[in-house]
């Protein structure tokens, strides 16, 4: 009798997992917006086995394989490469008019501090407005924006390529490298990053070179 109960529980669990996966798959094929979701490996809390799935990568604009943990996750997971391509191959993200609600829909211009240095932004790429918002450590409020308290905050930090933004192409920028006492070129992806990010070589060298 106990054996029969165990089989019944196993059957119900398997049916539930299959049902949830079918719902996710149905949602995926009815709403292209899931192609813009970040890769989510899910978790293993429901006891399902890990398996290969595919997700649409916004940066490469291609369907990529990943190891799905079996439970949870989001709609950007497909059973096959063909399924992923069928829905997402021509996907173009909707550009948001602002950063309200999060995300990096577009690369909004960041206000400049003295020396053409970028003001501080939060984790959602929104400009931190002071004094209503507190400035990060080593930054101080200047004309309603948070600016670096001294040059070391800018020039001694390693450059950061930032994150991909839907609007605006990847752009060449310059960062100061203290080991060579010079400014070098890097590619900026359009959102976030840090203050060691200058639009021109002259701005960089004028601000940082000792």
Radius of gyration from CA coordinates: 23 Å
String of helices and strands = HEEHEEEEHEEEEH
CATH class type of the largest domain: Few Secondary Structures
Major sheet: size, sense and barrel closure?
Answer: 2 strands, antiparallel
CATH-defined superfamily of the largest domain = Pancreatic trypsin inhibitor Kunitz domain
Strand content: 15-25%
Oligomer: single chain
Task: Please give the share of residues in helix.
Answer: 10-25%
| Strand order in the sheet with the most strands | 1-2
Protein name: BPTI/Kunitz inhibitor domain-containing protein
Domain BPTI/Kunitz inhibitor: 35-88, 155-208
InterPro entries: Cuticle_assoc_divergent, Cys_repeat_1, Kunitz_BPTI, Kunitz_BPTI_sf, Prtase_inh_Kunz-CS
GO molecular function: serine-type endopeptidase inhibitor activity
Note down, in words, how this protein is organized.
The structure is a single chain. This protein is of the alpha+beta class and about 210 residues long. The protein has two domains: about 1-90, Factor Xa Inhibitor (Irregular), CATH 4.10.410; about 110-210, Factor Xa Inhibitor (Irregular). Helix content is about 25%, strand content about 20%. It has four helices and ten strands, in the order H-E-E-H-E-E-E-E-H-E-E-E-E-H. The longest helix is centred in the N-terminal third of the chain and has 29 residues, at about 1-30. The chain is elongated, with a radius of gyration of 23 Å. The chain starts with a helix and ends with a helix.
């Amino acid at each position: 009798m106990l054996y029969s109960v165990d089989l019944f529980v196993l059957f119900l669990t398997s049916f539930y997992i299959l049902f949830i996966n079918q719902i996710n798959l149905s949602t995926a094929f009815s709403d292209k917006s899931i192609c813009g979701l970040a890769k989510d490996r899910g978790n293993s809390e429901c006891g399902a086995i890990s398996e290969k799935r595919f997700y649409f990568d916004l940066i490469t604009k291609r369907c990529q394989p990943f190891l799905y943990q079996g439970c949870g996750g989001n709609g950007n997971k497909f059973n096959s490469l063909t399924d992923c391509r069928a829905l997402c191959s021509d996907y173009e993200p909707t550009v948001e008019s602002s950063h309200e609600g999060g995300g990096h829909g577009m690369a909004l211009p960041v206000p400049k501090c003295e020396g053409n240095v970028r003001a501080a932004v939060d984790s959602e790429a929104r400009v931190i407005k002071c004094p209503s918002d507190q400035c990060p450590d080593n930054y101080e409020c200047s004309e309603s924006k948070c600016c670096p308290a001294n040059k070391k905050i800018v020039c001694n930090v390693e450059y950061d390529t930032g994150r991909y933004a839907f609007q605006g192409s990847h752009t060449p920028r310059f960062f100061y490298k203290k080991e060579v006492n010079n400014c070098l070129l890097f590619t900026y992806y359009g959102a976030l990053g840090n203050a060691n990010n200058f639009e021109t070589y002259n701005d960089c060298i004028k601000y940082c070179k000792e």
